[in-house]
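Input/output pair, single chain:
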Amino acid sequence: MTANEARNIGYADAVETAGAWTVGVDARRRYGATGIVWSTGVVITADHVVERDEDIVVILPDGKRVAATLAGRDPANDLAVLRAGDLPASALRAPNPRVGDLCLAIGRPGGYLSAALGIISATGALWGRRRRGDRRPVIRPDLTLYPGFS
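Output:
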């Protein structure tokens, strides 16, 4: 979906569309977390929400629970990769956002779809470790991320 297509549909439709590739992740003791089906069978989530290496479950949009395995972690960037069967990959592609664009944060903590609306407040700001030379540009949204959106 391009930015222009997103502008031509309502917010509820945009949330529903993106929600098809947004999954719940059950890999910690409390709050559910969120993941995105990045490619076939691959779910990307935040590293800090994966508190255990076994008994990880991905909750699909229809409520079905699928066993997942931890494929890798990148704690420095707070990313974890899970393998979960043959889940279909997302068809969504991110446009180049501009400061002032509206944005949606979509989560599925505990398996229920949630959304928040905000604005892109900065682009191109650098994030990472300066000493190691691995700083990268980031997109900074101004919106509320509720518990479980990670």
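Residues 6 and 34 are 22 Å apart (CA to CA). DSSP finds two helices and nine strands in the chain.
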